[in-house]
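For the sake of transparency, this paper describes our internal protein records without simplification. The record that follows is passed on verbatim for readers who wish to inspect the format:
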Amino acid sequence: MGFIVLILGLALWTAAHFFKRLAPAQRAAMGDKGKAVVAVGVVAGLVLMILGYQWAAFINVWYPPAFFTHINNLLMLLAFYSYGIGAAKGKLAQRIRHPQLIAVKTWAIAHLLVNGDLASIILFGGLLAWAVGSVILINKSESWTPPAEIKPKGDLKLIVIALVLYAVVAGVHVWLGVNPFG
């Protein structure tokens, strides 16, 4: 049951996000109602993924080596940094088109490295596939112009913010009983 709910959640998440790219005329015809439909689909997909992941039976597929934990932690720090590149408006924002999707891909790969169970492979692999597909669809449908505005201290501020967020998320993991440091 848990695997079915997890897969349904991934499917709903993906469909809601891809709706604008795969059916642009139908999405545009819905106007503002379309935003609400997409938002409900995204939230419902997220809830189903969380519940499905929790309910899924633990089926071990492989045993990750212990040193992958260190790689995971480095990748997670990079994911936090990447996620904020667009908002920081530093020099990297002019070079990286999809910083948030790069962050999701980095996050997914990091978690695939340290979780060898089937539910994790489905969840993180599914979100990795969604992020890759999103980049492809966006690149096919839109041209990109790098932002003109640059904030010289944006990248430095982002380093501090990424470190703080990393510490907070690591703390939440420890509080929940999952030590991300091994």
Summary: The radius of gyration is 18 Å. The chain is about 75% helix and 0% strand. The longest helix spans residues 32-55. The mean pLDDT is 93.
